[in-house]
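Input/output pair, single chain:
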Amino acid sequence: MSLLDNYRNATKKKDSILCVGLDPAVIRNSEEFRSYDFAPQNHIKGFRNGDVISEVYTAEEEIGNEILEFCINVIEQTSDYACAIKPNSQYILFAMNPAQLKKLNEKAHNEGLISILDHKLSDIGSTNSSAFYWISNLGFDAVTFSPFAGNIEEATKEAHRYNLGLISLALMSNPESSWIQKEARFNGIPLHQEIARLARLSGTDGLVVGATDNVTESDIRNIRKIAGDDMLFLCPGIGAQGGDAERVIKSAGDNLLINVGRSIIYDKDPGERARVFQGLFNGFRE
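Output:
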């Protein structure tokens, strides 16, 4: 079954296009995290002192289990209102072992969710193939991919060989990406449009299309026109990044996953927050 088929089944069952981004920060180690309004203490069993994961649990031999516990708690609270999760590899792969990652995906699948590893893989063919093998082995359904190594067709075939969906970056939510993805030209057209064309020709499963102000309604409509109606759009930038969900939903048509991370997982009530986003997105779809 293709990623798009899995998506359609999940979104129909859950009545949701919400994807919960799992970005479990251990400590407030940047200005961004220090300034963010973290959840009050004790909103999730085992976590205290207002941190996402308490510094009490940062012992090397324990931290993977604590991150797993945090993620499972979020999944349990939000799975009635979401159709997918998107764990970010920068937060989980360096702390969690393979057994823990498999447990994370088993939990997601038991709750009827698609699991997308946000890894932005970009390398030569043999290295990509090795990554696809292990990502599939760990139980993920799809992985994000950076096409700037120039091998999107080869990568799509290799990912599919391991029954893994591939979602390529096209036009990201961070404004810093615009100088290459939007302003750079390939045969006179923006690079993100050429990526969309290659993705369609290669049978790639999806594209990352941001929901922030650097991505206009015209950008979204043009990408959809080029990529086709059956291309899954994974749209980050809603919530903490200030993106506009209504603009994306009304510009992109069907087959959307709207990702919300920090605004849900760090809230004092992640389940209620997810329910609100589910209703908001469904209202824009009507």
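Confidence is low (pLDDT under 50) at residues 28-51. The longest strand covers residues 114-121.
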